[in-house]
Amino acid sequence: MKPYVSFVTFGRNDDYTPDYARRFSKVVACLAEQLERAHLDAEIVVTEWNPPPDRPLLLDTLDLPASGDFVTVKGYVVDPRFHARFEGAHERGMHAGESWNVGIRRARGRFITPKASDTFFSPQAIDRIARRDLQADTMYRLDRHDVAMPAALWSADNDALVSGLESLPAEPNAYLRQVDWWRLRDLHTNACGDFLLMGADAWHRLRGHPLDRSILMLDGDSLVLHAAAALGLRECRWAAPARIYKPAHANLNNARITATWQPWQKALEAVLKRIGGPALAHRARMAFDYPRRKVRGVDSVLGPSIERNFVAPASRWARGALPVPTQPANWGLADEALEERIVRRAAWDTP
């Protein structure tokens, strides 16, 4: 028997945020309890990417009941040699896209969603999935809400924690309309890496997240969303109170990224805007790949511009071109015999 839905996350025991291992365990335990309560056949798949050799695996520190009727929790350990292949690997220990792909490739659910390692689902989001009426031709989105989470709340029981999150002031990552001259499909890309629920067949047609030979993985989740739409999937946005909560911290993705301008680029931008408006300047950005982007903490890699990396392919797809997967046929390290850890096995999950 296969689960209805797979939640795919990743991590490494490197103190990415304060008290990371304990908080990671709390997130997994809370989600497992929510799924059990909803009687939803599900699995939580953890990719333990590039684990530090001097620390225990996150999978070995998970604190949750050893058995359950509905939820399997399992993980795969990815040796550091695979991480070393990527540009900038010596400056950051995680490759989010490749980590997700390892789990997505091995997920057994009829539907699959990646999730960050520190996000919580509102009860209404779980209830919505538990209706079991998801469609294979649809991709599902909901808003992420960033909250300043008091440290004491991490020690509360799961119900009190989620209730506390619902009562805190929150900054929604709501739908943002893309600028007209980008000429893209009207999709909800804002924070889509935290929840993009699709059928397993769609994930496999796309070969997961696109290949990024650096550890930056800029725009990867937005590219997945637009590529899926180009394959014919329609977008369904779930309204509040179905939402995701993310504790705010200094390493939130957008806070780490800055545009890097060269003097000639600013001069060209001014001229083009004067003679042809922002649409002409945009075409030059795509053609000449500027401004490039820098990610804090990764000094050795200068990432591509959003116009070259995201807007150029997404606008082609909006005009009718079909996406061509950039990942190889063995995406997600499919031909590697990764170490598997079964943390807990559901009643439906027979060996």
Structure characterization notes:
- This protein has 351 residues and is α/β, with parallel strands linked by helices.
- The protein folds into two domains: 5-254 and 325-346, Spore Coat Polysaccharide Biosynthesis Protein SpsA, Chain A (Alpha-Beta Complex), CATH 3.90.550.10; 257-318, no CATH class.
- It has eleven helices and 15 strands.
- The protein has a seven-stranded mixed β-sheet. It has a four-stranded mixed β-sheet with strand order 6-12-8-9. The protein has a two-stranded parallel ribbon with strand order 7-11.
- α10 (263-288) packs parallel to α11.
- The longest helix is centred in the last third of the chain and has 26 residues, at 263-288.
- The radius of gyration is 20 Å and the shape is globular.
- The mean pLDDT is 95.
